[in-house]
């Protein structure tokens, strides 16, 4: 009772003011930290995401693989499917780039639905896409690639459809041998497109 009736001393008032000030400063620091974290997350997404399709970009694929620090390190088998749309330039030339963009977005959606849960899809650039398929090689990888280009072939945007060619390669060491899958894809295109060609030197 005596403590409640006793007047508050100047020291206690000063301590109370200091505690309130410290609380306000801590709240401000937490808000600033949350803002910095949100900005960093946004910058990370922007750096690794293709804005048109919402797929990963090349930087995103590199980070998924662990970055350049792991180059030369053996890894589990990863199948690579390089996909290129056949005659996509004609879509832009005839129907305009807005139609081309819509086709690309629909192709991205088709690849998402046709890929397996653990696969990683990247818009490599323009009308090229890379699908990394952990654990897939040989005939299984060819089958996955065929499913992917079949899904692309089923895309229709306001009466406009597209086909795709694919090259495959499997890797057991980083960095991924995407150039070999790319070379196989060009063989598929030279053969008339709408098909899958496997790189013969898989390693």
Report on the structure:
This protein is an alpha+beta fold and 203 residues long. The chain has two domains: 2-47; 58-198, Reverse transcriptase/Diguanylate cyclase domain (Alpha-Beta Plaits, 2-Layer Sandwich). It has seven helices and seven strands; from the N terminus they run H-H-H-E-H-H-E-E-H-E-E-E-H-E. The strands form two sheets. A five-stranded mixed beta sheet has the order 2-3-1-6-7, sandwiched between helices. The protein has a two-stranded antiparallel sheet with strand order 4-5. Helix 4 (88-95) packs antiparallel against helix 5 and helix 5 crosses helix 6. The N and C termini lie far apart (84 Å).
How would the blueprint of this fold be written?
Elements: H1 2-5, H2 10-48, H3 58-64, E1 74-86, H4 88-95, H5 97-114, E2 120-125, E3 128-134, H6 138-153, E4 156-157, E5 160-161, E6 163-173, H7 178-190, E7 196-198
Parallel strand pairs: 6-7
Antiparallel strand pairs: 1-3, 1-6, 2-3, 4-5
Helix pairs in contact: 4-5, 5-6
List keywords for this structure.
203 residues; alpha+beta; Alpha-Beta Plaits; 2 domains; 5-stranded mixed beta sheet; two-stranded antiparallel ribbon; elongated
């Amino acid at each position: 009772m005596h403590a409640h009736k006793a007047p508050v001393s100047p020291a206690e008032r000063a301590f109370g003011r200091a505690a309130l000030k410290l609380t306000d400063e801590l709240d401000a620091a937490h808000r600033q930290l949350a803002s910095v974290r949100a900005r960093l997350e946004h910058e990370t997404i922007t750096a690794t995401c293709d804005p048109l399709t919402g797929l990963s970009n090349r930087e995103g694929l590199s980070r998924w693989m662990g970055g350049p620090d792991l180059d030369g390190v053996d890894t589990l088998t990863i199948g690579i499917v390089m996909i290129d749309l056949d005659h996509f330039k004609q879509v832009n030339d005839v129907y305009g780039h807005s139609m081309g963009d819509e086709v690309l977005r629909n192709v991205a959606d088709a690849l998402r639905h046709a890929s397996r849960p653990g696969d990683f899809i990247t818009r490599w650039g323009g009308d090229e896409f890379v699908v990394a398929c952990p654990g897939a090689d040989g005939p299984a990888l060819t089958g996955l690639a065929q499913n992917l280009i079949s899904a692309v072939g089923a895309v229709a945007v306001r009466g406009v459809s597209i086909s795709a060619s694919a090259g495959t390669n499997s890797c057991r060491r980083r960095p991924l041998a995407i150039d070999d899958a790319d070379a196989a894809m060009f063989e598929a295109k030279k053969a008339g497109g709408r098909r899958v060609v496997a790189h013969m030197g898989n390693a």
